[in-house]
UniProtKB/TrEMBL annotation:
<dbReference type="InterPro" id="IPR003598">
    <property type="entry name" value="Ig_sub2"/>
</dbReference>
<dbReference type="Pfam" id="PF00041">
    <property type="entry name" value="fn3"/>
</dbReference>
<protein>
    <recommendedName>
        <fullName>Neuroglian</fullName>
    </recommendedName>
</protein>
<feature type="domain" description="Fibronectin type-III">
    <location>
        <begin position="937"/>
        <end position="1038"/>
    </location>
</feature>
<keyword id="KW-1133">Transmembrane helix</keyword>
<keyword id="KW-0130">Cell adhesion</keyword>
<dbReference type="InterPro" id="IPR003961">
    <property type="entry name" value="FN3_dom"/>
</dbReference>
<dbReference type="GO" id="GO:0030424">
    <property type="term" value="C:axon"/>
</dbReference>
<dbReference type="Pfam" id="PF07679">
    <property type="entry name" value="I-set"/>
</dbReference>
<keyword id="KW-0677">Repeat</keyword>
<dbReference type="GO" id="GO:0098609">
    <property type="term" value="P:cell-cell adhesion"/>
</dbReference>
<keyword id="KW-0472">Membrane</keyword>
<feature type="domain" description="Fibronectin type-III">
    <location>
        <begin position="736"/>
        <end position="837"/>
    </location>
</feature>
<feature type="domain" description="Ig-like">
    <location>
        <begin position="541"/>
        <end position="630"/>
    </location>
</feature>
<feature type="transmembrane region" description="Helical">
    <location>
        <begin position="1152"/>
        <end position="1176"/>
    </location>
</feature>
<dbReference type="InterPro" id="IPR013783">
    <property type="entry name" value="Ig-like_fold"/>
</dbReference>
<feature type="domain" description="Ig-like">
    <location>
        <begin position="360"/>
        <end position="433"/>
    </location>
</feature>
Length: 1270
């Protein structure tokens, strides 16, 4: 029973058709018969019975191959004629061949029938097996008939001629070699190969010049010397689409004779083979239209369809010579025209009309039908075809004879008051015309059955609000049962409820009030059945953020965003579709769906353009929203239509071939010449997009080829294919050399230079330059000239000339036709320059303006002494003790003798000198002067960085300024919040940093998850320097994590009152989770209770001091690192306050003998006196002769105290805080322990080596400066 049900379902799936059944009390119950029969009871044999129906049947044509005993390489190829049906009782099978009963047993076991099937197996096919076969499956209820199959023997006969023939051809002409293919069925496929003289296959033929027509002839569009084969032949071959063998026939030895002319001779297109003017085509079959032309150059073939366009899916093959339709459609009917052109002679055209015919096909056909007794049944067979098919009806394979109950009305068969014994049968309808037939086999089964609910409502059906839902209740019976529904035992009524024909209940626009229990009740004259189910109503899925249309340039990234919400009890899934097809991101790495459901398409291309749909889906409903992606790319290359040459102009005409979704803005017309065939130059640019025809100018004596480039907002297209060949006549040059100049490049010479003129500007043979020159300061001097025959040379040297004299110069272009038709322009040049004879004198400072500016003056030199182009003056300055590479300079115009120079180094002794210079030489320097500049504000710090320490602090570290401009006295730090483009109130960090050696501090008490702008200034006694700011963000509260175990140091400190303190220093670890602050816990060893410092006490510090301890007792200390709500304690350390390592020995000076103290005071007094004397002497050092001699010998020990930043490199370090944290221990410690090396500590004593990067100093460059001229 299950096998019978599956077969019916398969039949209904494979064959697409419709059926109309008119009944008195119900309709369409035949769809439920197989399920109903199974549920009613397998013991009811009568209910299981049905007429036969075909499951498998043969095609309309089947080929077979007969084994030839003489061919040892062939093997038998058995085949099967399929025929299988279902029915109850099980059907029996018979066959007819050519309309006569066929008995397979008479063929000596060559033909057998498969058990319980009607399929015939041909194990050894023979030629006598050809014929028209048809299968019949019968039981007591009717006869099912299969398709008629034409069994045809496949064969491929031999060539009639396989001899070798010599064919002579002239180079450049057309040639056709006939094939005379063999006969066979199906029609043999012809192809040509190249075969060696020994018979071995070398390769096939694949060339744009060679083509094979449907009759097998080989056409050469134009013959070349390469077509003449060495030790090889052209061979015509044939193969069958069914058989696995091929045959070789006519072989040709092609002998190509020279044409007797040099180069190719143009030959206009000549027709070699074209399809006939009228071509019938069958819908669904393959069709090829041919248009083969010869000529030189090779003709280009284009196709058009008159009064229409060639549809997509029609291919141009065989290098454009064939128009191929894989499956002909009705819309393909029309006139097709091919055009052959090669730029030589007239364009050739050929038109061919395609008329589409069709074998019959079903528009509507009936299916197997089950009906109740006394009902009326209507079957409709509607077929189409060209020409119109003829329709015939059959019953059990015999022509149907109408009567009072059975009538045929056009395409409909109507049976009134069907009767079980008379009308249960297999019916057939056949539609046929001259091209074939369409055949349909179906049965009518008349039944009497009580109601059955074969598909009851689901135990639980779920739906979403406002949707439509169907509660199933599929019933069966004969006659068809009447179905009613109840909800919570109340009959249903209302416009939103509808009982469908198959018994299902459809509820439109479901509401929450529709939730409840439903009952389906089925009744006919033989009884009643009911079934129940529950409906649950859920919330509807909604898209809350739909994707938006996106326009992007090719190779950029496009992002679509989408979010949705659904009923909490349902699982929500978001998917994306492209042009209604789901996207599988695993197949294309460019497409990424992120965790927030956004879809990114990277490296977009034009094919990515289309509609992208976001689909939010639950198991109950789905909703979608779409957006369009437009990927714009550069245009397709234009196609040049024609180039019309006319003297020195050419009219270029082209057509665009696609803008790739960005409109074309302009075109560029480019050309190349035979002088530079690989170099394309612009003939005209920015031709407006509407213009596709433009006249361009050409120069004489050249061969021009053109191409066109299109431009849109994305960029330039690839160029069109080169087109045209314009030759111009010779003429005189149209221009003279450009950029003529003359100047001295070495002592005693005048070098005349110009831009060489390329061959495109020569305009004829015999091109040369003629160079003219003469002195401009000598009246009446004759012109000198020299001829330069090498067009590549772009200079001429005139030697033995006086220093810096003016010359008149011109350079002319000549060829064999004469000089250029324009007069060459004259230029003034100068002979070589020399070192200036004078240096500026009386160089002096008038006024010191500020820390880097001074007003300087000097006595000017005479212009004649410069001996060259007077460019001006240069002032050089450098600070004493600086690297020589740090020399600064400023240029002064030649007409100035006083200038405000602003390039001096602040807080330094600057040495300045001045020179005069021309375009090649500088004079000797003037006298040196000393400019002592005062201290100024510093420049910005050389680096500034920070690290977030939890949610409320940032650790900052920096490097001192490269330009301190004085003695750094500290740093000022300001901070303000950043919200978008707005800044909050600026606040200053306290305590102030007044130790210049500090280069790292903690900035605390900040808001979590907030961005800050932090600014630092270096400070000198003059004031704050230039700012340097960074922007950093604190971590959010939810980003807090368990801090790593902290590390700390403990040191003894003596307070001013003499009491002992313990200094605890925390070393945060930036490589992991350091925490944002800390507090200290301590207890007397042996006790259990810890004392603690306040948890929020150390927001701005990494140091805490513990007082009130017993100096001689041992304590256990630990620190606790804090990050938000997370805390991590360190290891315990045992500490005795009086015995801590690191005790400051200076702290015990008070315990030394009084005599020692007195001696130290005396020594200090002597040192102070000596220092004061040295300072006085040094300030007078510039006045005495010893000091001047030292400066003259390059010695100068002048050095302002506290300004060693210029001489000593900054030494920062960057190391892990987990290493080198502990310092060598001593008996005591004090707060002055690290004054000698406080760069390792912050202002609060915290270690900052971790945060200070090593600063690499590059060789200083000579700075440029500014001067104000007075």
């Amino acid at each position: 029973m299950q096998r019978r049900r599956m077969a019916i379902d398969n039949e209904s799936y494979v064959v697409k058709f419709s059926i109309r059944v008119r009944i008195n009390r119900a309709v369409i119950m035949h769809l439920l018969l197989p399920i109903a029969l199974f549920l009613i009871g397998c013991n009811n044999v009568r209910a299981l019975q049905s007429p036969p129906t075909m499951l498998k049947q043969p095609p309309h044509e089947q080929l077979f191959e007969v084994f030839q005993s003489s061919d040892s390489e062939q093997t038998e190829r058995p085949f099967v004629l399929e025929c299988e049906a279902k029915g109850n009782p099980e059907p029996t099978y018979t066959w007819k061949k050519n309309g006569v009963d066929f008995s397979y047993v008479a063929y000596d076991k060559r033909i057998t029938q498969q058990p319980r099937r009607g399929s015939l197996v041909f194990t050894k096919p023979q030629a006598v097996d050809e014929g028209l076969y048809q299968c019949f499956a019968s039981n007591k209820h009717g006869v099912s008939v299969s398709n008629a199959v034409f069994l045809k023997k496949a064969e491929l006969n031999a060539f009639s001629n396989d001899e070798i023939e010599d064919i002579y051809a002239i180079e450049g002409e057309l040639l056709t070699i006939p094939c005379n293919p063999p006969t066979g069925y199906p029609k043999p496929k012809i192809f040509w190969i190249i075969q060696s003289n020994s018979g071995a296959l070398i390769n096939g033929i694949n060339s744009s010049r060679l083509s094979v027509d449907p009759e097998g002839n080989l056409h050469f569009s134009n013959v070349t010397q390469k077509d003449m084969l060495v030790d090889a032949l052209y061979a015509c071959s044939a193969t069958s689409s069914f058989k696995t063998t091929y045959r070789i026939g006519r072989r040709t030895n092609l002998i190509v004779e020279p044409s007797g002319t040099s180069g190719q001779t143009a030959l206009q297109p000549v027709k070699q083979y074209v399809s006939p003017p009228n071509i019938p085509a069958i819908k669904g079959t393959r069709l090829e239209l041919f248009c083969i032309f010869g000529g030189t150059p090779l003709p280009e073939i284009s196709w058009v369809k008159r009064k229409g366009a060639i549809r997509d899916g029609v291919h141009r093959t065989n290098y454009g010579k064939t128009l191929q339709f894989d499956k002909v459609e009705f819309g393909d009917e029309g006139v097709y025209e091919c055009t052959a052109s090669n730029g030589a002679g007239q364009i050739q055209t050929h038109a061919m009309e395609v008329v589409v015919k069709s074998v019959p096909f079903w528009i509507e056909a009936p299916n197997n039908t089950d009906a109740a007794d006394e009902e009326q049944v209507t079957f409709r067979c509607d077929a189409a075809g060209i020409p119109e098919p003829k329709l015939q009806w059959f019953k059990n394979g015999d022509p149907l004879i109408p009567n009072e109950r059975i009538s045929i009305h056009g395409k409909e068969l109507i049976i009134k008051s069907v009767q079980e014994l008379i009308d249960t049968a297999v019916y057939q309808c056949n539609a046929s015309n001259v091209y074939g037939y369409a055949f349909k086999d179906f049965y009518l089964n008349v039944l009497k059955l009580p109601p059955e609910i074969v598909d009851p409502p689901e135990k639980e059906t779920r739906a979403v609000v406002t949707s439509d839902v169907i509660l199933k209740c599929r019933v069966f019976g004969a006659p068809k049962p009447d179905v009613k529904w109840e909800k919570d035992d109340t009959p249903l009524n209302g416009a939103n409820y509808e009982v469908l024909k198959d018994g299902d209940l459809k509820i439109r626009n479901v509401l929450v009030t529709d939730q409840g229990n439903y009952k389906c009740i089925a009744t006919n004259k033989f009884g009643t059945k009911f079934a129940t189910g529950e409906l649950k109503v859920k919330g509807k899925t909604k898209i809350i953020h739909a994707p938006e249309n996106f326009e992007v340039a090719a190779r950029k990234t496009a992002v679509f965003r989408c979010n949705a919400e659904a009923d909490p009890s349902l699982d929500l899934h978001i998917q994306w579709a492209f042009n209604e097809r789901l996207i599988d991101t695993s197949h294309d790495p460019r497409i990424i769906q992120a965790s927030d459901h956004s879809l990114s398409i990277t490296t977009t291309k034009e094919l990515d353009s289309g509609v992208y749909t976001c689909i939010a889906r639950t198991e109950l409903d789905s909703v979608n929203a779409s957006a369009t992606l437009t990927v714009q790319d550069v245009p397709n290359p234009p196609r040049i239509v024609d180039v019309d040459c006319n003297g020195l102009t050419a009219m270029v005409e082209w057509t665009p071939t696609g803008d790739n979704r960005a409109p074309i803005l302009t075109y560029d017309i480019q050309y190349n010449t035979s002088f530079q065939p690989d170099n394309w130059a612009n003939a005209f640019t920015n031709v407006p997009a509407p213009d596709t025809k433009f006249k361009v100018a050409m120069s004489p004596w050249a061969n021009f080829t053109f191409r066109v480039v299109a431009k849109n907002k994305i960029g330039f297209s690839l160029p069109s294919s080169p087109y045209g060949f314009c030759s111009t006549k010779e003429d005189v040059p149209y221009k003279n050399p450009d950029n003529v100049s003359g100047r001295g490049e070495s002592p005693g010479n005048l070098m005349i230079r110009w831009t060489q003129m390329t061959p495109i500007d020569h305009n004829s043979e015999g091109f040369h330059y003629k160079v003219f020159w003469k002195r401009n300061d000598i009246s009446g001097e004759a012109w000198n000239n020299r001829v330069i025959t090498d067009w590549r040379q772009n200079y001429f040297e005139v030697t033995n000339q006086p220093i810096f004299k003016p010359y008149r110069i011109r350079v002319e272009a000549h060829n064999r036709k004469g000089p250029a038709h324009t007069t060459a322009s004259e230029v003034i040049g100068w002979s070589s320059e020399a070192k200036p004879e004078q240096s500026p004198t009386n160089f002096r400072m008038l006024e010191l303006v500020d820390h880097k500016s001074a007003l300087l003056t000097w006595d000017p030199v005479t212009p004649e002494s410069v001996r060259g182009h007077f460019e001006g003056y240069k002032i050089f300055t450098n600070a004493v003790g600086d690297n020589e590479k740090l020399i600064r300079e400023v240029k002064i115009p030649p007409n100035v003798s006083k200038a405000l120079v602003q390039i001096f180094k602040p807080n330094a002794r600057n040495i300045a000198r001045i020179v005069v210079f021309n375009s090649m030489y500088m004079s000797d320097p003037s006298n040196e002067i000393v400019v002592n500049t005062p201290e100024g504000v510093p420049g910005p710090v050389s680096s500034f960085e920070g690290i977030a320490m939890g949610a409320s602090a940032i650790y900052l570290y920096w490097a001192p300024p490269d330009e301190p401009n004085g003695k750094i006295t500290g740093y000022r730090i300001f901070y303000e919040t950043v919200e978008g483009t707005e800044l909050g109130t600026k606040q200053e960090r306290f305590p102030l940093i007044e130790d210049p050696k500090i280069n790292g501090v903690k900035l605390g008490n900040l808001k979590s998850g907030t961005k800050y702008r932090i600014t630092i200034h270096a400070v000198t006694k003059v004031g704050r320097g230039e700012p340097f700011f960074i922007e950093l963000e604190t971590k959010g509260d939810d980003a807090a994590g368990q801090p790593d175990k902290p590390v700390f140091d403990a040191n003894h400190v003596r307070a001013n009152d003499g009491s002992d303190l313990v200094k605890i220093t925390w070393y945060p670890n930036s490589s992991k989770v350091p925490g944002s602050n800390f507090y200290v816990q301590y207890r007397l060893k042996g006790t259990n209770t810890f004392l603690s410092t306040p948890r929020d006490q150390n927001q701005d510090s990494t140091v805490v001091y513990i007082s009130g301890l017993d100096s001689d007792k041992t304590y256990e200390f630990r620190i606790v690192a804090v990050d938000g709500k997370y805390e991590t304690p360190s290891e315990l350390k045992e500490i005795t306050p009086s015995g801590i390592s690191g005790m400051d020995p200076v702290g015990h000076l008070a315990n030394f003998a009084p005599w020692f103290i007195g001696m130290m005071c005396a020594i200090a007094l002597i040192i102070v006196v000596v220092v004061l004397v040295c300072i006085v002497k040094r300030n007078r050092g510039g006045k005495y002769s010893v000091h001047e001699k030292e400066i003259a010998h390059g010695k100068d020990d002048y050095e302002e105290p506290g300004f060693n930043e210029y001489n000593k490199p900054y030494r920062g370090s960057r190391q892990s805080l987990n290493s080198s944290l502990h310092h060598p221990e001593s008996d005591e410690d004090s707060m002055a322990d690290y004054e000698g090396d406080s760069s390792k500590f912050g202002e609060d004593g915290s270690f900052i080596g971790e945060y200070v990067p090593k600063k690499k100093r590059e060789d200083p460059q000579s700075p440029t400066g500014i001067a104000t001229f007075v």
